């Protein structure tokens, strides 16, 4: 495993971050609360991740309606002190935790939700806290000041933002400088071989200000694993059957994507000993030194295998360019 400090902090994370969005649900969607992995299955994935050297877990208060945080907290209580002390926890807030719950990033709501997160995880201080989405109904000044106060008061060690635009990030940095607030220390947006061009702009800003970057969906919802085939129905229980909306753009360009995947298999066999498409896709991200860590959301312990492949190969700049050029501009 590889490890790296994030932003300007002393927080050292594993470059593979375990995404826990399927623990007790399917992401933040209330209609799927209680589905996904149950607590026993979630603990098996956590155990397997730790054996691989993963120390950093990514969750959110709305994942499974609080179940994800609860499962992680219960798992931590079973661990010995050495394991617990090595774990870095990251959680997020914005989305409703139950039908009828509020959403957003007001000072009042964040202050309430962080207490619930700490209680469910069984900790006094959260290592990393993110806004899950940006709240256009609340001023950035209010949100940033609240996160800053949580850090000063010791409830969180550092904070960041997920699903933020370049304009919002630049404005947030300016506000923090003007008000003498702690800045975001890292950004967590979607990035993979299928949608890296938009993320590239954010990466450039992060590099400029020394911020970390921890992309999620590095396998594009399964499109970069080979699980979806041309002219074959989607596998029951897959993201494309449960929650296809985020991937509609891939469906529209599926022929070009499938052509790219076939070419990717040839490159893998010729240059890297025929490792999996998923492993090569992860290695492509890890080979970018600007990326602090990538968030992987396995549904089973065996889904961690591509991580081992990715950590054991090296991509040069020619490899990176050749792989990127296989797919359409999305």
From TrEMBL:
This is NADP-dependent oxidoreductase domain-containing protein. Belongs to the aldo/keto reductase family. Aldo/keto reductase 2 subfamily. It holds the Pfam family Aldo_ket_red. Keywords: Oxidoreductase. Residues 16-318 form the NADP-dependent oxidoreductase domain. GO terms for cellular component: cytosol. The keyword Thylakoid does not apply. One of its GO terms (molecular function) is oxidoreductase activity.
């Amino acid at each position: 495993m590889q490890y790296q400090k994030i932003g300007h902090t002393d927080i050292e994370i594993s470059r593979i971050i375990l995404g826990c969005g399927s623990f007790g649900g399917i992401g933040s969607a209330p209609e799927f609360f209680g589905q996904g992995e149950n607590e026993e299955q979630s603990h098996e994935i956590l155990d397997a991740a730790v054996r691989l050297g993963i120390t950093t877990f990514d969750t959110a208060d709305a994942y499974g309606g609080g179940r994800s945080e609860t499962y992680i907290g219960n798992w931590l209580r079973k661990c010995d002190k050495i394991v617990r002390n090595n774990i870095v926890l990251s959680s997020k807030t914005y989305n409703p935790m139950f039908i009828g719950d509020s959403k957003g990033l007001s000072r009042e709501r964040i202050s309430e939700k962080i207490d619930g997160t700490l209680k469910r995880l069984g900790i006094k201080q959260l290592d990393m806290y993110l806004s899950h989405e940006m709240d256009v109904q609340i001023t950035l000044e209010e949100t940033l000041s609240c996160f800053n106060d949580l850090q000063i008061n010791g409830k969180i060690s550092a904070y960041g933002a997920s699903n933020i635009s370049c304009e919002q990030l630049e404005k947030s940095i300016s506000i923090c400088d003007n008000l003498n607030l702690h800045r975001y220390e890292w950004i967590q947006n979607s990035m993979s071989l299928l949608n890296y061009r938009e993320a590239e702009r954010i990466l450039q800003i992060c590099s400029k200000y020394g911020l970390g970057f921890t992309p999620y969906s590095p396998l594009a919802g399964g499109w970069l694993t080979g699980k979806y085939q041309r002219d074959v129905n989607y596998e029951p229980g897959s993201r494309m059957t449960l929650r296809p909306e985020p991937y509609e753009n891939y469906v529209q360009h599926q022929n070009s994507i499938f052509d790219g995947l076939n070419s990717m298999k040839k490159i893998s066999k010729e240059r890297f000993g025929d490792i999996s498409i998923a492993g090569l896709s992860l290695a492509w991200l890890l080979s970018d030194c600007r990326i602090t860590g990538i968030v992987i959301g396995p549904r089973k312990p065996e889904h961690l295998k591509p991580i081992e492949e990715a950590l054991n190969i090296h991509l040069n700049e020619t490899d990176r360019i050749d792989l990127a050029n296989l797919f359409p501009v999305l």
